[in-house]
């Protein structure tokens, strides 16, 4: 059956069944009474009662996300945790998810947290977990809690516990599946065919060069024909052609759980088949997880867990993190907004047109770029727990994690890469494998002496990681070869005479960590709590003499509500004051950077006879034997409260994190023969406040209304860049990379990381800015008016209507000295709020997230409003309101009075013809309020489900990314495509975000 017909039928069936089932079950409204259970959280290798926690910890339990259908566990927690920013880099299937805890501490290193899944370290763990199999997620935010994880704990720790079975429970089978469709949410407005050709007429005819005039007439016809030929021509919206398809999603989750008197088990299976809204893109994933617990005796128990995930992302996407040459979105935005034309047909690939415009028909290009990005993850872990006596417990965890990744990418004959290589296809192949063995052993002592309760933990941990990668770039394949044939037959490539293929590149990345740690916890009269911990880590990525790092921490708490003056309070049911201090470490750099190694490639080759012989080089990063641990010191103070017997609850935290000895990829003088070197150079600080609050507003047998909300504010500041980070130790400029040689970010002491650097837009030059010579018909800038020629116009003399920039230093020349701080990606505050409603058997949840005060660097806006080197490129719709040089009859106007009258109602400047550069026109307010998820469900009553032989039956309807309130003009204010801590908030060629509408069923047998 056709996917679309299936999806529509499913949606209609759900919409029909919900009210029918509601009527059938109208009498079954009694709600089970809630029980007050002492909630526990996982903190530092052991579980602790939430009431006794002294650290800054945020948690999400299965109950909060169980009714939210999603294939990405990170999406399920977005906006739910104070101080935790969860954002998708773009909207492509399987897109990377960024999780940043309390702002970024590192500058050039990774700011990703450390993930621990069932006691075993994993990278990007949320991407291989289904939300349905998560029991709890605890996020450790301050160093007093993260320091016991030492290495890599500086950016926070995410502890994930997966669901298991229950002892003495009968076997149950749960099926949760949904069917949905994605569609593009918004597009970039561009010139229509008539506006487009008028703009081309101006470009071709403005200079008065006859060959250009003739070229326009050949391609588009005469001016008199523009209205007739293009006024009513069908507009082709290439964005709709490329991204406008209905993308279907089929997701199935099956869980089988059960247990006996001394054992329990769970088996969960997940299958996802998802189309992307972009043609040729999609995502497939299969996951299986088996968990088994067995009590060998009253003292000895064991847990075995096996997880396997296999996923593949299809499609070349819209861009890579590289420069403008990788931008595939450009073809959908800038390609002429009609097919063919009266003068000539370019529906088929025309290499001359491609060279003249740097564009390819986006549909043809999509067929010529094939990419498969696959990843297989295996996790095996076992836990043995031995209760030596009622006070002592020994626990050992051993885990094995393996990740295999591959990339197969084919660039057909129409792609720019193939055209650069003799018009022959090119294949890129990459394979990588990493293997990690973890062993953690802990001895725990717990005892109560009257009013005194003590808890001691001693532990030892080893983490052994090995990884290798292989990349190959195969050029000069046969023109007729298909992508799959090319992947399987790279030997069919035949280099032209005198040329050789690039050598394959290999990389070995071993990493060893050995650790010793301990923690002591003391509680007096259930009022006063003191916790102290210490960890020592030895890491192989550092050279001899710098391998050990030491990370102490301490925290205290006072349960004020246990004092006599509050114990009988009818209002305050919980009031706990917390304070903590700790040191955590970061070692996220590649292995062997303390030594020098060589790589070979034909890129470094030299001519020998008629051939090119590959050469060897050390690369552009200089070794540094003195590099050592980056460390973060965190201070935290918090207050937890509960009012009216827990009907209102929340917490407030204030913190400061100071990171020093930054693992900085520093620029060094090129006289060294290198460009960069990893150094412990500089420091940053993050200060912030977090507030979370929740309430059960109404709770009775028929109706329940709960709300949870959080809001956070973080201020990041660079305190030092060290003495050798650049020519000036106070600052340096850094490129975002979307355009070569464009230094558009400022890294400066006293500024936040991610500060945009560019010119201030001052509108355009007007007639009264010039002196006019009627004899030569030339416009010359008046004395005292600064010229933007060098910065914005390719050194051409400015004319009326050209882009004008602010002369900030007042020297009469607009150059690099007039560039300034244009803001940063750092929001003033961010957060989210969730409301859940239950009325009889109906349920509804509404999840919002928001950000206020952050700036977004809309690089698309710069590219799509700049002529640069090419004609016949479409532009943003606002370019239709540009300065005009030609009247309605196609005659150029030079007279100042007539020209001013012609442009009396226009506001936009003439698209610059020079190189791309950043100015404040592209820096937009990225504040937004997004309704991330709306879910409505209906559950059959217990009596009715029993008659069907079921224990649960629920139908639900969901919309994800329902709407976004924002002033941002691009696809998505959350886009972040550069993947570098120094260059956040850049929206360049991001895959458009989509709206997801789905319906599903949750059945338990």
Outline the structure in words.
There is one protein chain. By secondary structure, the protein is mainly β. Among the domains are: 193-234, no CATH class; 590-626, no CATH class. It has 18 helices and 48 strands. The strands form 10 sheets. It has a 22-stranded antiparallel β-barrel. A 5-stranded mixed β-sheet has the order 3-8-9-6-7. A hairpin with a 2-residue loop joins strand 1 (40-43) and strand 2 (46-49). The relative contact order is 0.13. Residues 50-157 form the TonB-dependent receptor plug domain. Belongs to the TonB-dependent receptor family. It is found in: Cell outer membrane. Its main location: membrane.
Layout of secondary structure:
Layout: H1 3-24, E1 40-43, E2 46-49, E3 57-61, H2 62-65, H3 73-76, E4 84-88, E5 97-101, E6 114-117, E7 120-122, E8 134-140, H4 143-146, E9 157-162, E10 172-184, H5 193-206, H6 210-220, H7 226-230, H8 238-243, E11 247-259, E12 263-275, E13 282-295, E14 300-314, H9 329-334, H10 351-357, H11 362-368, E15 369-387, E16 392-411, H12 416-419, E17 426-449, E18 452-474, H13 483-488, E19 505-508, E20 511-524, E21 528-539, E22 548-559, H14 564-567, E23 572-586, E24 599-608, E25 611-617, E26 621-622, E27 630-643, E28 648-660, E29 663-667, E30 676-680, E31 683-699, E32 703-720, E33 731-734, E34 745-748, E35 755-758, E36 761-764, E37 770-773, E38 778-781, H15 789-792, E39 803-805, E40 820-824, E41 829-839, E42 842-852, E43 855-858, H16 859-863, H17 896-902, E44 923-925, E45 928-939, H18 942-947, E46 952-966, E47 986-987, E48 994-1004
Parallel strand pairs: 6-9, 26-30, 43-47
Antiparallel strand pairs: 1-2, 3-8, 4-5, 6-7, 8-9, 10-11, 10-48, 11-12, 12-13, 13-14, 14-15, 15-16, 16-17, 17-18, 18-19, 18-20, 20-21, 21-22, 22-23, 23-27, 24-25, 27-28, 28-31, 29-30, 31-32, 32-41, 33-34, 34-35, 35-40, 36-39, 37-38, 41-42, 42-45, 43-44, 45-46, 46-48
Helix pairs in contact: 5-6
Protein name: TonB-linked outer membrane protein, SusC/RagA family
Main location: membrane
Subcellular location: Cell outer membrane
């Amino acid at each position: 059956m056709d996917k679309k017909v299936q999806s529509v039928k499913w949606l209609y069936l759900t919409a029909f069944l919900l009210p029918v089932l509601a009527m059938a079950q109208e009498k079954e409204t009694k709600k089970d009474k809630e029980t007050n259970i002492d909630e526990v959280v996982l903190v530092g290798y052991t579980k602790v009662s939430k009431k006794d926690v002294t650290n800054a910890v945020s948690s999400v339990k299965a109950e909060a996300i169980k009714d939210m259908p999603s294939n990405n566990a990170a999406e399920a927690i977005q906006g739910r945790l104070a101080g935790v920013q969860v954002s998708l880099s773009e909207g492509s299937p399987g897109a990377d998810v960024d999780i940043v805890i309390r702002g970024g501490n590192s500058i050039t290193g990774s700011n990703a947290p450390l993930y621990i899944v069932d006691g075993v370290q994993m990278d990007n763990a949320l991407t291989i977990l289904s939300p349905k199999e998560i029991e709890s997620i605890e996020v450790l935010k301050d160093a007093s809690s993260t320091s016991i994880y030492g290495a890599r704990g500086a950016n926070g720790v995410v502890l994930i516990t997966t669901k298991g079975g229950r002892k003495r429970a009968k076997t149950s089978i749960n099926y949760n599946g949904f069917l949905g469709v994605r569609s593009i949410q918004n597009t970039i407005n561009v010139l229509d065919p008539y506006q487009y050709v008028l703009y081309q007429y101006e470009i071709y005819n403005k200079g008065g060069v006859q060959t250009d005039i003739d070229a326009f007439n050949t391609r588009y016809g005469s001016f008199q024909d523009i209205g007739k030929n293009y006024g009513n021509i069908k507009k082709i919206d290439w964005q709709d052609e490329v991204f406008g398809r209905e993308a279907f999603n089929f997701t199935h989750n099956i869980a089988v759980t059960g247990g006996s008197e001394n054992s329990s088990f769970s088996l969960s299976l997940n299958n996802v088949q998802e189309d992307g809204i972009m043609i040729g893109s999609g995502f497939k994933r299969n996951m299986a997880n088996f968990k088994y617990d067995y009590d060998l005796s009253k003292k000895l128990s064991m847990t075995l867990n096996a997880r396997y995930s296999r996923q593949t992302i299809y499609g070349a996407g819209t861009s890579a993190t590289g420069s403008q040459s990788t931008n595939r979105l450009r073809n959908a935005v800038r390609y002429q907004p009609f097919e063919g034309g009266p003068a000539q047909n370019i529906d088929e690939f025309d290499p001359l047109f491609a060279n003249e415009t740097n564009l390819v028909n986006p549909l043809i290009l999509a067929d010529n770029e094939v990419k498969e990005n696959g990843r297989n993850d295996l996790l095996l872990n076992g836990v043995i727990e031995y209760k030596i006596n009622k006070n002592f417990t020994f626990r050992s965890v051993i885990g094995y994690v393996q990740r295999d990744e591959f990339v197969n990418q084919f660039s057909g004959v129409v792609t720019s890469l193939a055209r650069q290589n003799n018009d022959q296809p090119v294949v890129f192949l990459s394979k990588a494998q990493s293997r990690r063995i973890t062993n953690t052993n802990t001895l725990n002592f717990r005892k109560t002496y009257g009013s005194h309760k003590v808890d001691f933990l001693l532990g030892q941990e080893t983490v052994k990681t090995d990884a290798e990668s292989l990349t190959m770039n195969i050029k000069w394949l046969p023109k007729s070869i298909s992508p799959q044939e090319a992947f399987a037959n790279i030997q069919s490539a035949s280099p032209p005479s005198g040329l050789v293929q690039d050598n394959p590149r290999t990389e070995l990345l071993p990493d060893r960590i050995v650790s010793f740690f301990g923690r002591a916890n003391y509680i007096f009269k259930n009022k006063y709590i003191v916790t102290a911990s210490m960890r020592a880590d030895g890491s192989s990525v550092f050279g001899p003499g710098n391998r050990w790092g030491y990370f102490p921490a301490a925290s205290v708490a006072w349960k004020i509500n246990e004092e006599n003056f509050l114990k009988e309070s009818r209002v305050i049911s919980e009031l706990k004051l917390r304070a903590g201090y700790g040191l955590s470490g970061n070692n996220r750099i590649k292995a062997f950077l303390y030594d020098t190694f060589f790589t070979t490639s034909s890129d470094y080759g030299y001519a020998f006879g008629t051939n090119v012989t590959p050469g060897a080089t050390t690369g552009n990063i200089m070794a540094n034997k003195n590099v050592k641990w980056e460390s973060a010191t965190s201070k935290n103070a918090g207050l937890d409260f509960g009012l009216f017997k827990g009907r209102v609850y929340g917490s407030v935290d204030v913190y400061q994190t100071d990171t020093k000895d930054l693992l900085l990829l520093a620029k060094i003088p090129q006289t060294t023969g290198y460009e960069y070197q990893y150094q412990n150079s500089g420091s940053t600080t993050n200060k912030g406040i977090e507030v979370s609050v929740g309430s059960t507003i109404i709770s009775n047998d028929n109706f329940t209304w709960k709300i949870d909300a959080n809001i956070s504010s973080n201020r990041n500041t660079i305190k030092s860049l060290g003495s050798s980070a650049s020519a000036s130790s106070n600052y340096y400029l850094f490129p975002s990379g979307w355009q070569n040689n464009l230094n558009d970010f400022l890294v400066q002491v006293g500024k936040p990381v991610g500060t945009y650097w560019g010119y201030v837009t001052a509108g355009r030059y007007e007639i009264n800015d010039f002196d006019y010579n009627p004899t030569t018909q030339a416009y010359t800038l008046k004395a005292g008016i600064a010229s933007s020629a060098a910065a914005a116009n390719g050194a051409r003399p400015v004319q009326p209507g050209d882009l004008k920039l602010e002369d900030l230093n007042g020297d009469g020349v607009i150059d690099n000295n007039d560039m300034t701080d244009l803001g940063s990606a750092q929001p003033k505050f961010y957060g989210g709020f969730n409301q859940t409603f239950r009325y009889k058997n109906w349920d509804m949840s509404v999840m919002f997230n928001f950000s206020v005060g952050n700036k977004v660097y809309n690089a698309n806006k710069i590219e799509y409003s700049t002529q640069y080197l090419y004609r016949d490129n479409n532009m943003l719709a606002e370019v239709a309101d540009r300065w005009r040089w030609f009247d309605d009859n196609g005659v150029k106007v030079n007279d100042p009075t007539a020209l001013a009258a012609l442009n009396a109602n226009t506001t936009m400047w003439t698209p610059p013809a020079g190189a791309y550069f950043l100015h404040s026109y592209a820096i937009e307010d990225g504040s937004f309020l997004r309704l991330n998820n709306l879910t409505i469900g209906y559950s059959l009553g217990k009596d009715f489900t029993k008659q069907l032989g079921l224990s649960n039956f629920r139908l639900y309807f969901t919309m994800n990314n329902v709407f976004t309130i924002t002033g941002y003009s691009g696809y998505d204010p959350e886009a972040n495509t550069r993947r570098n801590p120094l260059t956040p908030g850049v929206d360049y060629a991001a895959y458009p975000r989509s709206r997801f509408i789905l319906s599903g069923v949750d059945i338990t047998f």
